[in-house]
Amino acid sequence: MLLEDAKIVAHEIMGDPESGMRRLVLRSEIAAEALPGQFVQLKVSTGLDPLLRRPISIAGVDQDKKEITLLYRLKGKGTKMLAQAKIGNVLNLLGPLGHGFTVPQNGTLYLVAGGIGAFPLLPLAQEAVKKGLEVCLCWGGENQGFFESAGLHLWQALGIDIQVSTMDGSMGIRGNVLDILNNYEFAKTAQVAVCGPMVMMAAVNEFFVKTDFVVEASLEERMGCGVGACLGCVCTLQDEQGKLRRGKVCKDGPVFKAKEVVWNAAL
Amino acid sequence: MLLEDAKIVAHEIMGDPESGMRRLVLRSEIAAEALPGQFVQLKVSTGLDPLLRRPISIAGVDQDKKEITLLYRLKGKGTKMLAQAKIGNVLNLLGPLGHGFTVPQNGTLYLVAGGIGAFPLLPLAQEAVKKGLEVCLCWGGENQGFFESAGLHLWQALGIDIQVSTMDGSMGIRGNVLDILNNYEFAKTAQVAVCGPMVMMAAVNEFFVKTDFVVEASLEERMGCGVGACLGCVCTLQDEQGKLRRGKVCKDGPVFKAKEVVWNAAL
Amino acid sequence: MQPSKSALKTVNTEVKLGPLTLRNPVITASGTYGFGEEYAPLCPVERLGGITLKGITPEPRLGNPVPRLAETPSGLLNSVGLENPGLKEFMTTYLPKVRKLPTAAIANISGFCVEDYIHMARSLRKESGLAAIEVNISCPNVKHGGMHFGTDPASAEQVIAAVKAETDLPVIAKLSPNVTSIVAMAQAAARGGADIISLINTLLGMSIDIEKQRPVLANVMGGLSGPAVRPVAVRMVWEVAQAVGIPIIGMGGILSWEDAVEFLLAGASAVSIGTGNFVNPLAPLRVIEGIEEYCLRHGVSAVSELTGLAWKEN
Amino acid sequence: MQPSKSALKTVNTEVKLGPLTLRNPVITASGTYGFGEEYAPLCPVERLGGITLKGITPEPRLGNPVPRLAETPSGLLNSVGLENPGLKEFMTTYLPKVRKLPTAAIANISGFCVEDYIHMARSLRKESGLAAIEVNISCPNVKHGGMHFGTDPASAEQVIAAVKAETDLPVIAKLSPNVTSIVAMAQAAARGGADIISLINTLLGMSIDIEKQRPVLANVMGGLSGPAVRPVAVRMVWEVAQAVGIPIIGMGGILSWEDAVEFLLAGASAVSIGTGNFVNPLAPLRVIEGIEEYCLRHGVSAVSELTGLAWKEN
Ligand SMILES: Cc1cc2nc3c(=O)[nH]c(=O)nc-3n(C[C@H](O)[C@H](O)[C@H](O)COP(=O)(O)OP(=O)(O)OC[C@H]3O[C@@H](n4cnc5c(N)ncnc54)[C@H](O)[C@@H]3O)c2cc1C
Ligand SMILES: Cc1cc2nc3c(=O)[nH]c(=O)nc-3n(C[C@H](O)[C@H](O)[C@H](O)COP(=O)(O)OP(=O)(O)OC[C@H]3O[C@@H](n4cnc5c(N)ncnc54)[C@H](O)[C@@H]3O)c2cc1C
Ligand SMILES: Cc1cc2nc3c(=O)[nH]c(=O)nc-3n(C[C@H](O)[C@H](O)[C@H](O)COP(=O)(O)O)c2cc1C
Ligand SMILES: Cc1cc2nc3c(=O)[nH]c(=O)nc-3n(C[C@H](O)[C@H](O)[C@H](O)COP(=O)(O)O)c2cc1C
Ligand code: FES
Ligand code: FES
Q1: CA D144, D150, D154, D156 torsion: positive or negative?
Q2: Which of A240, C64, C278, D12 could disulfide-link to C219, CB 3.0 to 4.6 Å?
Q3: Residue A72, ligand 1, Cβ within 6 A
C-alpha cells in the first residue's frame, strides 16, 4: 500500500463526450503491486473541496512502464474536478487497496458486467488471457454509444468472446445482462466475476446458484478511509449457518464471494 | 458595479520570484467604469475553498482594450491559488467597488506609499499625469529587490519624481517613508494620497497635520460582501466635533479623508 | 432514477407562511443584505421573495472592533456585534426607502432585555409597510446575568409573546443553533405565539492567528455561517418541522438551488440566503430559477409542495 | 512580525495530561483509526503520541445500515452506529495486538446505561496494557428515555464517576458538542473525577439526496466532523480550558500542523486527528513535524508551553 503523488501521463475523453467517460493514465509505483479488482483512493484536488478521496478501480497496469490506467465516468463534483486535471499534473493516490478477484488456474472465466462495472474486470480478463484461460464477457449497457465510450475496443483487443445487451436493442441482445445469461451455453468448470449495480449483481448471483461455479462480486460503497479503519463502507455477509457479519468493502472487499453477500440488506 | 467572468490575458511573475509579486491582466467591462483607488472582489476558485472573494485594487485600466491590471503579492491560500490561474482561464470579478481618490484639478499631488500600498496609487498617478499635474511618489520598501518586483518600472515610465527609502539602505534613503518626507521640500498647494500599513498611514497623516493639504488614505480591512451590506469591514471615523461613527471600507472607502480616520481605534 | 419530464409548463412559486405570503420562497438573510439597497445594482430586488433587514436595536450601536470577519473551511466567522443605526434613525432614514423596495421587507430586531423588544415591536406595525418582524433572540439578556434569550426556552417564549402582543405584523422567531434541543426552543417560540420560525442563526465559533497567538476576531468569538454549517441547519429544520406545526424559514450555508431544495425537502416553507450572497451576489436569483426548474423536472406544480417531502410519505 | 529564529535546536515534545504521559501531543481519534493496524503500513505507529481505538460496547454491534457516510462542504457525516466486536471479542482478539502497538493505546467505550460503562471499565485496567480509557458519552441513555448522557450534566458526572471507581487507568471524558453549555458538561465531568477531557465529538447533522428526496444516510442523522467544525471545536476548547482545570485533548477538523497549533494555543494539551487521516494518511506525522518546527521558530523549548498561549498573558 503506497501513498504517492503520481504524474498524469494521459488523460482523455473516451468516445462520445456526452457520455462523460475518461481514461486516465498515471505514472505510479502502484503498478508493481496492483492485483486485478483492487482500487485506488484518489485526491482530486489539493484543497478542501471536495474533502474526501474518490475510490476508482485499477483498470489497467503496465508494470514495465510503471503505469496504471483508471477509467471513470463523470458523476458529481469530484469526478468533474478530476476531469480538469492536465497531463503533467500530479494527483495524490493511495493504493493498491482491497482484495481483488481470484484469478482461476484453469477452466473458463465468465465476466458479467453491468454498465461501468466492466472497468475493474478488465485487468482480470487480461490476467486470465495471459494464462491461456477461456474468457467470456457478458456486458449489459444502455445503448451502442455507451459501449463505444466505455472502452469496448479495449476488450475487443483481448480477442475474447464478448456478448453485449442493450436496453434499446441498438447493439447485441435487447434487454439486460440476465437476458444474455439466460440464452448462454456455459462450460462445465468455470468461475464467474461480476460487477455492476447491486440489483443486477444480486440477480446474477441468483442465476448461478443452480451451478457450482464460484461467483465473485465486486461491491461499491461510499468510502471514508479506504483502508478498513472507519467502518464507513460496510456490506452485510452471512456464513453458511446464516450468521450475519459486516464486511468492509474497502479492505475485505471490494470483491466478495457472491453467495456470502446479503444482497437485500437494509440492516 | 458589474459581476462578470473575466478572461485572463496576462499573468506573470514580477521581478524576483521569491518576492511573490504577480501582474494579472483581465479582459473586463469594468475597465469602462473604474476610477483610481477602486478595487474588485475576485473569486480565486470556482469551488468552496476558499469561500470568500479577495479584494484587490485596480492598478491599471485600459479602456480601449477593455483591460484591467491587478498587481498582487502572494500572501495566504487565496492569493496562492490565484497564482495558479492560467492565461485564457476565467475569473469571476465583482467591481469596480468603493470610493477612490479625488483627482486634484491643479497643484501638486504627493503619493506616499508603504510597500505594496503603491498598487492602488498607480492609476491615480496616471490620471494626474494625464491632467498635467506635478506628481511625486514617496515610496518606502524593504530593499532594492522589493522595488524591482513591485513594479518600480511602471512608475518610472510615468516620468514623475520618485523618492524611495529602504530599511537596509540598498536603494534611496535608508529608513522608512517618513524619513523621505522629513527631508522633502513640499509645494504650497498640494494634495496627498497615502496607502500602506495602518501605522505608517497614521504617521503620514500626523506629518501633514501642520499643512493644509488634503490627505486621502486608502484603508484595508477583511471583507465579506464588498458592497456595504455586511458591516464586516468597518473603520472608525470622527467628525469635527469628535463624534464617532463607522465607515465601511468597501463602500464609503477604501479611500477616506485621513483626518477623519481614528487611527488608533481599538473600539 | 431520473423522473421523466412532465408536461408541466409553469410552477406556482408563491408560498404562504401562516399570515406571510411571499412571491417565492427565497429571502435574503439578516445582516448580510444591509437595508436592501447594496445588492440592488446586482440582483433585481423585485425577483426576491423577500429581504430580511440588518438587525436593529433600540439605541444605535457601533458594534464590535475589527477584525470582525474570519474565513474558515467553507465557512465565515463574524462578530459584527449588531452595529446598527438604532430604532429612531431606522424609522426616519431607512424605513422610507425600505417601504419602496419591490419585495417583502422583514425587520430583524435584537434586544438585551424584554423591554427592548417591546419598545421596537410597538413601532413596527402594519402601517410601517413592513411584511413581518423577525425576532433575533441570540443575544445575552443583560437583566438576567447574560443568559441568552436564545438558549432558555422560558425567556424565548416571554420575548416572543411580548412582541406578539405589541405588533399586528407576522412574528418570526429566529432561533440560535447553540442549544441542546432546538425542538424545545421551537416549541417555546410556538407557545409564545410565533407565526413562523426561522433557523438557523450562526454557530458560536472562533479561530486563532497562530503567528500572533491571539484570536483572529477582536471580539474573540463570532458566529459561524456558510456551507460548513449546512448539515447542522438541515438537521434542525428536519427536527423542528416534524415536532412543531409552524412554517419554517430555513437557512445556513445555502449557495445553490440544490442547497435550497434540501431545506425545503427537510421541512422549510421558505429559505434565506446569507453568506452565499458574498460568494455569488446572484445566488438568490439562481436559487429561485433552480427551484422552479427542479419542480418542473419533478412534475411538482407548486413550490410549496416540496416542503417536508423527505419525511412525508410520497 | 515573524519572530527571529532562535538558537533552539530541539524541542521537548512530551506532554503530560495529568496521569497520562505521551511522547508527543498527536493522537489519532476514535472510530477513524480502527484498532491501530490499518494505517500502520502508511504512518509509522511509533511516531504517534497515541492511538484512540474504535469505540467498544459490552455486546457486539452490527451498527447502522449503509449509506453510513456523506460528504459535506469541508466535512463528513457518519452514522457508523458504533459497529464493534463487543468487549469480549475485543479482549481476546484485538487487545493482544493492541498491546504490541509501539504507542499509547487508548480504549474508547460507549454504553447505553451506566452498568454498560461499569462492566467495560472493570476489564480495562492497567494490566490490560492500555494507556487510558476514553469514555464516549454521546449515546442515548436507554434506561432514561433516550436522554443522552452527553447532554445532561448529572448523567455525565454519574458515568464518569462510575468508570473512575472501576479502573485504575487515566479516565478521559469525551464530550459531545451538541449542548448549550460545553462548560457545564466539562465541569460535570470534572466533578465525576475525569483526569482528562477530550473534545469535540461530532456535531449532529444530516443531508438530503434531492433526487431521491430522502436523507443520504440510512440512519437519517449522523455526526459531522472535519474542517467544517473546527471553529466550533476551537471555541469549545478555549472555553473549557479557561473554566476547568483539567488537561484537554482537542479535536475537530485537524488536517495540518497549523490547525493543531490552533487547538494547543486555545488550551489543549494534546490533539487528536480523525477525519484528517482519510484525507491524508500522513497527516499525524506532518502535524508532529510541523508543531516541532513551529516551536523552534518561536523559541519554545517544550510543546507543552504552547497550551493556552492565546489567552494566557505572554
Ligand atoms: C471500490 C470502488 C471502485 C470504483 N471504481 C470506479 C471506476 O473504476 N470508475 C468509475 O467511474 N467509478 C468508480 N467507482 C465509483 C466512484 O467512486 C464514484 O463515481 C465517485 O466517487 C463519485 O464521486 P463524485 O464526487 O463525482 O460524485 P458525488 O455524487 O458528488 O460524490 C459524493 C460522495 O459520494 C461518494 N460516491 C458517489 N457515488 C459513489 C459510488 N458509486 N461509489 C462509492 N462512492 C460514491 C463520493 O466518493 C463522494 O464521497 C468506484 C467505487 C468504488 C467504491
Ligand atoms: C481594498 C483592498 C485592496 C487591496 N488591494 C490589494 C492589491 O492590490 N494587491 C495585493 O496584493 N493585496 C491587496 N489587498 C490585500 C489582499 O486582499 C489580501 O492580501 C488577500 O485578501 C489575502 O488573501 P489570502 O487568501 O492570500 O491570505 P489569507 O491570509 O489566507 O486570507 C485569509 C482571509 O483574510 C483576508 N485578508 C488577509 N489579508 C488581508 C488584507 N491585507 N486585507 C484584507 N483582507 C485580508 C482574506 O481576504 C481572507 O478572507 C487589498 C485589500 C483591500 C481590503
Ligand atoms: C455578517 C453577518 C451578520 C449577521 N447579522 C445578523 C443579524 O443582525 N441578525 C440576525 O438575526 N442574524 C444575523 N446573521 C445571521 C444570518 O442572518 C444567518 O442566520 C446565518 O448567517 C446563517 O445563514 P448563512 O449561512 O446563509 O449565512 C448575520 C450573519 C452574518 C454572516
Ligand atoms: C467515521 C467516524 C467514526 C467515529 N467513531 C467514534 C467512536 O466510536 N467513538 C468516539 O468517541 N468518537 C467517534 N468519532 C468521533 C471522532 O473521534 C472525533 O471526535 C470527531 O470525528 C472529530 O474529529 P475530526 O474532525 O478530526 O474527525 C468518529 C468519527 C468518525 C468520522
Ligand atoms: S472506507 Fe473506511 S472502512 Fe472502508
Ligand atoms: S465587506 Fe461587507 S460591508 Fe464592507
Answers
A1: positive
A2: C64
A3: yes
